[in-house]
Write a structure and sequence with these properties.
The structure is a homodimer. By secondary structure, the first copy, chain A, is α/β, with parallel strands linked by helices. Chain A has two domains: 172 residues, HUPs (Rossmann fold, 3-Layer(aba) Sandwich), CATH 3.40.50.620; 94 residues, 2-Layer Sandwich (Pantoate--beta-alanine Ligase, Chain: A,domain 2), CATH 3.30.1300. The first copy, chain A, is 38% helix and 21% strand. In chain A, the strands form two sheets. A six-stranded parallel beta sheet of chain A has the order 1-4-3-2-6-7, sandwiched between helices. In chain A, α9 runs antiparallel to α10. The first copy, chain A, is globular, with a radius of gyration of 19 Å. Chain A starts with a strand and ends with a strand. β5 of chain A pairs antiparallel with β5 of chain B.
Chain lengths: 284, 284
């Protein structure tokens, strides 16, 4: 069967209802398109767990702040469509802005605790846009399983909290970060980087590597590791640090010692391009 | 089959999934209990449209403002249970507060336009509590149809907007106001009234009657009708008017002329008891 593309909310919802009636389990990968291997690895995770895999492509205006890159965000639907077909996606849901938001849209879903720090602090309102659109996509596609990437670690935790607090009957699966051969985390925004910026961006991965090695070597004190991470990032003069955060991986609250899984999350600007990356530091 | 009572979210959700798998259509009447004929009329409406009727009883703490009547709100589960059984309810969902809200609950659903006026202005935060709990109940009970009473006219419009904007696949049915023989709109809060307050509370219905008659007689100017409504309410010295509002029934925006269905909504305090009532004025 060839892949379908739906642009209408109602068509998508009816189709999902039909799949459910047929007893199929639905998987959903919400994306903003401009797909890379990171997204496609999530398709494989959904495929393992469900019978019918939907990938949504929607550059969600309400999760971009004024002055951010909503208009310039890279888009290439034809390429995305071909990649989805190759990856075995059953249906691409590709609505436009009018289809998703009425001009008098007035209902929002907001997470008020986990979303306040790191990216939420740098991008006020961002996660309210994310939770609202994901709640909508869950109601439209009615997935049994939805797959998100660990690269957006805070987003994963916020979505998991939304599912818990609103009693949404969707299993959230988090796929590992997929990296370029040299270690740069895959991101649609990498295409903003100049060839020289592309090389400088490796400082993110290098600083995470160093932190992992320090923890493996027995270091547990966050301030010591943090200093090393800052030094690595700062050795690249064109890297502007937005944040370096060490957070409990469950609660996203700051920690001083590594005694449980700790999320080390970075946001760094290389020129005008804001990149994020993270790793979970363990001390078994 | 005798009626079931479920207190657990997980049990309720699993049971609803089973009903859906069996091809049954689910009806839901969300209530705060202390049931009266108004609620039971909604059961009949759900029964007509669905195969399996769930009535939820939950006095939702987050829709009460500080200083409001959350603790004193009347509760009588045994009586409610018997009324539900008589009315042919299939399942009563009766969770406690801990079951509905984790101590670190942090996700809310908020409507930001229709909920700002009348009751939303008098009770800031009230509708955020309502939309959050109704979104949760929809995810837990998974109804095809949910029935609400027109007595809470603004609540009905806010819920309809939530369903539209979050693409929730639930049909909202609104049941007409049910009144005592003398015209007082049924409400669990009527039991707060003293015998003399009970008589004074009739000024609400009398003022709505007068407005309806004026419109039937051809009056279209809101300011003229409003003056008559205020005069009727003010003739009762112990009635303290919270609001008298003439609003477009769709958009809940104030109107000056009655050219389309107009919601005339009242909130009046009789002693310490805040009562609401409304009617839709037509000019066919």
């Amino acid at each position: 069967m060839s892949m379908n593309v739906f642009a209408s909310v109602q068509g998508m919802q009816q189709c999902a209802l039909g799949q459910k009636k047929a007893g199929h389990r639905i998987g959903l990968i919400p994306t903003m398109g401009f797909l890379h291997e990171g997204h496609l690895s999530l398709v494989a995770l959904a495929r393992k767990r469900t019978d019918w895999v939907v990938l949504s492509i929607f550059v969600n205006p309400i999760q971009f702040m004024p002055g951010e890159d909503f208009l310039q965000y890279p888009r290439n639907f034809e390429r995305d469509e071909a990649l989805c077909e190759q990856a075995g996606v059953d249906l691409v849901f590709y609505p436009d802005q009018k289809e998703m938001y009425s001009t008098d849209h007035s209902v929002f879903v907001e997470e008020t605790s986990l979303s306040s720090g790191i990216c939420g602090a740098s991008r006020p309102g961002h996660f309210k846009g994310v939770t609202t659109v994901v709640a909508k996509l869950f109601n439209i596609v009615m997935p049994d399983v939805a797959v998100f990437g660990q690269k957006d670690a805070q987003q994963c935790r916020v979505i998991q909290r939304m599912v818990r607090d609103l009693n949404i009957n969707v299993e959230i699966v988090v796929g590992p970060i997929v990296r370029e051969p040299d270690g740069l985390a895959m991101s649609s925004r990498n295409r903003y980087l100049s060839p020289s910026g592309r090389k400088k961006a490796l400082c993110l991965r290098h600083s995470l590597d160093l932190a992992e090695k320090m923890v493996q070597a027995g270091e547990r004190t966050v301030s010591v590791i943090q200093e090393a991470v800052w030094a690595t990032l700062s050795s690249e003069p064109e890297a502007n640090i937005d944040y370096v955060a060490f957070l409990d991986h469950e609660t996203l609250t700051p920690v001083l010692l590594i005694q449980r899984p700790v999320l080390l999350a970075l946001a760094v600007r290389i020129g005008a391009t804001r990149l994020i990356d993270n790793t979970v530091l363990y001390s078994p």
